[in-house]
Design brief:
Number of strands: 7
Helix content: 10-25%
Strand content: over 45%
Number of domains: 2
Largest sheet: 4 strands, antiparallel
Shape: extended
Length: 114
């Protein structure tokens, strides 16, 4: 079956396309991260969850893969106690993010970039 081979930080991770999977590379607060995970019914898998250092090379190849590498995490989906579900906490987080947005908007308008 088709899958994804990821070479990152001296490791080679194989993820066979047995169920929904994703590979994300993103930037948050000036730092870069890579995550690779999947969801099979109510089971969540994570193969990579790491910060990317400056100069690191990541190779991603779609290829025939028979079996996935062992995940670093396997848990019941949405069972993480750190996930915020309380409406008042969600409202506080949203207010904080909105204040951050308005602060950035003010700076961009002052610099005539917006």
């Amino acid at each position: 079956m088709k899958g994804v081979e990821i070479k990152f930080s001296t490791k080679t991770i194989n993820i066979a396309q047995e169920f929904w999977t994703s590979v994300m590379i993103y930037c948050r607060n000036g730092r870069y991260y890579i995550e690779a995970g999947g969801l099979d019914g109510n089971i969540s898998y994570r193969w990579i969850d790491s910060e990317i250092e400056l100069g690191e090379i990541i190779e991603i190849e779609i290829k025939d893969i028979d079996k996935s590498s062992e995940p670093i995490l396997k848990e019941t989906a949405f069972s993480n106690p750190n996930i915020v579900t309380d409406p008042s906490e969600i409202e506080a987080i949203n207010a904080e993010q909105l204040a951050y947005f308005f602060a950035l908007e003010k700076i961009l308008k002052k610099e005539k970039l917006l």
